[in-house]
C-alpha cells in the first residue's frame, strides 16, 4: 500500500471542511482535503438557506450574550457553554473574513443587509447570500481560496476506511480511491473530521446521499468520546410526497398553518402561544403525534397551508417555492403534505473550544462534532457552526503539525483483515444497498421522532442481525463502483446506528429531540450520554454536563 | 406501472438498453437508481443533494445538458430516454466526469 504524506488531512469538503482547509493553509503547512464525492459539492452545505449572524447589520439589541442565551435555551441543558460562547464570539469575525474573500450578502430594498427572523432566535439574525443559496455561496467563496493556495491539494472520489492511531495519537487515515480501486495510507500529524451527518440512516431525510454517518464511525474506531447521539433532529416540515423530493425542507413553516386530516389547526393543542412558530423538536413531536393518532394525511404527514403568506414565501424562499411548483404543487393555491424527516445530528464527537477531540491529533468540525446544539439545533446555526469550528479546527491542526508532533512508525497490519471483502472474492447474495435499506427501516420504525424502550431494544437486536449479514454480501468489483462505496458506507452506518440506539436507551426521559413514550417528561437532573467503542464493544454511560461521571 | 426504455451511453462505442418499470413522477435520477438497484450494479453516475443545488448530477438527457434530479424521465421522439455524459471534460466512467475543481 502506497503512503501519502501531508501535514494536515481534512476529511470532508463542505463548509466545515473547506473552512478548516483555508485556515489551516494560512499556516503554510501542507493540507490535503479529501471527499468521497466531488470536492466542494457533496455535503449538506449546498442545501443551507441562511446563516445566523452577528455583525454591523445586527439588531441593536443583539449581541454575543443574546445569541448564546438562545442556543443554550434551545439546547435543553445539553449545550456545552464553552462551545456556545465560542460560536457567539467568533461568528462576526468569520463572516467578516468571508465577506473580505468575496461573499456578497443579500440586501433588502434599502440596500441594507437583509435580516430575517427564525423560530427560536429571540431577535432577527439570519442573513443570506446568493438569493437564499447561502451554503453554495460560502462553498464557492472558500473553493476560490483553496484553488489559489499552493500548499493545498484536493482529492475527490476517495473514502476513508479507518483512522490510524500510533502511540496514543492520530497518525493518519487509511483511504480507498474509488477511481482506481486502491487503498492508500495518508500519513499526517493531525486529522480533521468534517464528514457531515447521519440522514441516510433514516428512510426519509433532507440530507444528501453522502450523509452516511462516516465520521462518527471513524471517531468510534479510534476511541473518541461521542456525546448525546440520541439527539437526532427531525426537520418537522419536510415534503412527504412526491417521492422525488421526499425529505425536502420547507423553511417557511413559521409563516404557514398546519392542519391535520380533520381540518384542525392542531398546534393549538401543543403550543397555543407560538403555534407553528416554535422550535423544531416541539413541532416534530406534535406532527408525529397527530399521525400516530390517525389524524395524518394519506402519505403519513399533515397539511401545510402557505397561501396567506405566499408573497413573502416567494420572495424569501424562491428555490423552495419553485421546486414544489416544478413537482406539481403550487403553494399559492394548494396545500402540501409535510412531515418530519431526519435532518441533523446534534450529538457527535465531543470537542473542546479548539475543536479538538479526546484523541490527540483528531479535530472535528461541523455536524460530526457534538455538544454545541444540545437537544435542539436552532435554524441557521448549522452554517455558523461550520465556519466557526471549521476555522478553529484548521488553526489547531496546523499549529499541532507546525510543532512537528509526529508519531512513531505506524503499524498497519490489522486493517486489511477487517476490510477483506474489498480485496477478495465475495460469494454472498446480499447487495450492500439492501443492508442500507434495512438499517433505514429499523431506525425509521424504532428510532424516529417517537421512541419507546421496547422499540429501542428491538432495534438493537435487528441491527445485530444486519451486522451479521455483512458477512453475506456480494460486491461487484469495478472502478467507480457504487457497490464498493455502498459496502464501505454501510459498515460506517451500522456502527453509528448502534451508537444512536444505545445512547437513546440510556436516556430515561424525554429531552430535546429525544422523545420516549415510556418517560414522556424531563428528568429532574440533566445528564449527557456518552458512547465509546473499544476492543469490539460499545460502552455507554451518562454524566452530569459540568464534569463528573454519574 | 408502465415500462420505459432507457438507453445509456456507457462509452463512445457502447450504449446499453434497459427496460425500466416507470411511473410519471420519476425523475431521471430515480430511473438511474432503479437501474442500479434492479438491472445493473455497475452503472456509475454522480448525485448528491437531489434538489437542484449541487449540480453534480448534470448529464446529457435526450441530448440536452440537464440535472438528472430536476428532469422528469420522459422518452424522446424516438420513444426512449437517452442519457449520456456531458461532452466537456474527461469522463471517468459511464456518466461520471472528473469534477471541475
Question: What do you see in this structure?
Answer:
The complex is a heterodimer of chains A (550) and B (101). Chain A is an alpha/beta fold. Among the domains of chain A are: 232-341, Flavocytochrome C3, Chain A, domain 1 (Alpha-Beta Complex); 424-543, Fumarate reductase/succinate dehydrogenase flavoprotein-like, C-terminal domain (Methane Monooxygenase Hydroxylase, Chain G, domain 1, Up-down Bundle). Helix content of chain A is 32%, strand content 18%. Chain A contains 13 helices and 22 strands. Chain A has helices at residues 15-25, 64-74, 81-100, 134-148, 214-221, 280-292, 310-316, 318-326, 381-402, 415-418, 432-446, 453-469, 482-506; strands at 2-5, 8-11, 31-34, 51-52, 126-127, 152-155, 158-166, 169-177, 182-187, 190-193, 226-227, 232-239, 257-259, 302-305, 336-345, 348-350, 362-364, 369-370, 450-451, 515-516, 528-534, 537-543. In chain A, helix 2 packs across helix 3 (81-100). The model of chain A has no long low-confidence stretch (mean pLDDT 95). Chain B has 101 residues and is mostly beta strands. Chain B has a single domain (2-97), classed as Beta-grasp domain (Ubiquitin-like (UB roll)). Chain B has one helix spanning 28-38; strands at 2-11, 14-22, 58-61, 64-67, 81-84, 91-93, 96-97. In chain B, the strands form two sheets. In chain B, strands 2-1-5-3-4 form a five-stranded mixed β-sheet, covered by helices on one side. In chain B, a hairpin with a 2-residue loop joins strand 6 (91-93) and strand 7 (96-97). Classes of the chains: A alpha/beta (550), B mainly beta (101). Chain A binds chain B through residues 37-43, 46-47, 133, 135-136, 143, 147, 154, 156-157, 179, 208-210, 242-245, 247-248, 319, 323, 326-327, 431, 433, 476, 478-483, and chain B through 25-27, 29-30, 36-37, 41-44, 46-56, 69-70, 92-94, 96, 98-99, 101.
Amino acid at each position: 500500500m502506497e503512503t501519502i504524506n501531508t501535514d494536515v488531512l481534512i476529511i470532508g469538503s463542505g463548509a466545515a471542511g473547506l473552512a478548516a482547509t483555508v485556515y489551516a493553509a494560512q499556516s503554510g503547512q501542507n493540507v490535503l482535503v479529501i471527499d468521497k464525492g466531488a470536492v466542494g459539492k457533496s455535503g449538506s452545505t449546498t442545501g443551507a438557506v441562511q446563516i445566523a449572524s452577528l455583525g454591523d447589520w445586527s439588531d441593536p439589541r443583539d449581541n454575543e450574550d443574546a445569541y448564546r442565551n438562545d442556543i443554550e435555551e434551545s439546547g435543553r441543558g445539553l449545550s456545552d457553554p464553552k462551545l456556545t460562547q465560542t460560536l457567539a464570539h467568533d461568528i462576526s469575525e468569520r463572516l467578516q473574513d468571508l465577506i473580505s474573500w468575496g461573499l456578497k450578502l443579500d440586501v433588502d430594498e434599502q440596500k441594507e443587509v437583509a435580516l430575517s427572523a427564525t423560530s427560536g432566535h429571540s431577535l432577527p439574525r439570519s442573513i443570506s447570500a446568493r438569493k437564499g443559496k447561502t451554503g453554495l455561496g460560502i462553498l464557492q467563496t472558500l473553493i476560490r481560496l483553496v484553488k489559489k493556495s499552493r500548499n493545498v491539494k484536493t482529492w475527490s472520489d476517495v473514502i476513508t476506511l479507518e483512522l490510524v492511531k500510533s502511540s496514543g495519537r492520530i497518525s493518519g487515515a487509511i483511504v480507498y480511491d474509488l477511481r482506481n480501486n486502491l487503498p492508500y495510507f495518508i500519513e499526517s500529524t493531525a486529522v480533521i473530521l468534517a464528514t457531515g451527518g447521519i440522514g441516510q440512516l433514516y428512510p426519509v431525510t433532507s440530507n444528501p446521499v453522502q450523509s452516511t454517518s462516516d465520521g462518527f464511525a471513524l471517531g468510534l474506531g479510534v476511541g473518541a468520546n461521542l456525546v448525546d447521539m440520541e439527539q437526532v433532529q427531525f426537520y418537522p416540515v419536510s415534503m412527504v410526497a412526491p417521492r422525488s423530493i421526499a425529505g425536502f425542507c420547507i423553511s417557511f413553516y413559521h409563516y404557514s398553518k398546519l392542519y391535520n386530516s380533520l381540518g384542525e389547526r392542531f398546534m393549538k393543542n401543543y403550543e397555543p402561544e407560538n403555534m407553528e412558530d416554535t422550535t423544531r423538536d416541539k413541532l416534530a413531536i406534535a406532527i408525529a403525534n397527530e399521525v400516530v393518532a390517525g389524524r395524518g394525511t394519506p402519505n403519513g404527514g399533515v397539511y401545510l397551508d402557505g397561501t396567506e403568506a405566499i408573497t413573502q414565501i416567494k420572495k424569501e424562499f424562491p428555490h423552495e417555492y419553485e421546486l414544489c411548483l416544478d413537482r406539481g404543487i403550487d403553494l399559492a393555491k394548494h396545500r402540501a403534505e409535510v412531515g418530519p424527516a431526519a435532518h441533523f445530528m446534534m450529538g457527535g464527537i465531543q470537542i473542546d473550544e479548539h475543536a479538538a477531540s479526546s484523541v490527540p491529533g483528531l479535530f472535528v468540525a461541523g455536524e460530526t462534532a457534538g455538544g454545541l446544539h444540545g437537544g435542539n439545533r436552532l435554524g441557521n446555526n448549522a452554517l455558523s457552526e461550520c465556519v466557526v469550528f471549521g476555522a478553529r479546527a484548521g488553526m489547531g491542526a496546523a499549529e499541532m503539525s507546525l510543532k512537528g508532533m509526529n508519531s512513531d512508525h505506524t503499524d498497519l497490519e490489522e486493517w486489511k483483515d477487517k476490510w477483506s471483502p474489498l480485496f477478495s472474492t465475495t460469494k454472498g447474495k446480499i447487495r450492500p444497498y439492501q443492508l442500507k435499506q434495512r438499517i433505514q427501516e429499523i431506525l425509521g420504525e424504532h428510532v424516529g421522532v417517537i421512541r419507546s424502550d421496547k422499540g429501542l431494544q428491538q432495534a438493537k437486536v435487528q441491527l445485530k442481525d444486519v451486522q451479521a449479514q455483512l458477512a453475506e454480501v456480494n460486491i461487484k468489483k469495478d472502478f467507480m463502483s457504487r457497490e464498493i462505496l455502498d459496502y464501505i458506507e454501510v459498515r460506517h452506518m451500522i456502527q453509528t446506528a448502534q451508537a444512536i440506539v444505545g445512547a437513546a436507551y440510556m436516556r430515561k426521559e424525554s429531552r430535546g429531540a429525544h422523545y420516549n413514550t415510556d418517560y414522556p417528561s424531563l428528568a429532574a437532573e440533566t445528564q449527557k450520554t456518552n458512547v465509546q467503542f473499544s476492543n469490539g464493544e460499545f460502552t455507554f454511560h451518562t454524566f452530569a454536563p459540568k464534569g463528573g461521571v454519574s | 406501472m408502465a415500462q420505459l426504455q432507457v438507453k445509456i451511453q456507457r462509452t463512445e462505442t457502447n450504449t446499453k438498453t434497459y427496460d425500466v418499470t416507470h411511473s410519471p413522477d420519476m425523475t431521471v435520477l430515480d430511473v438511474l437508481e432503479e437501474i442500479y438497484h434492479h438491472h445493473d450494479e455497475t452503472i456509475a453516475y454522480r448525485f448528491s443533494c437531489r434538489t437542484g443545488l449541487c449540480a453534480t448530477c448534470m448529464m446529457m438527457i435526450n441530448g440536452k445538458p440537464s440535472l438528472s434530479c430536476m428532469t422528469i424521465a420522459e422518452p424522446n421522439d424516438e420513444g426512449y430516454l437517452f442519457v449520456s455524459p456531458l461532452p466537456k471534460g474527461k469522463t471517468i466512467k459511464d456518466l461520471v466526469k472528473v469534477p471541475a475543481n
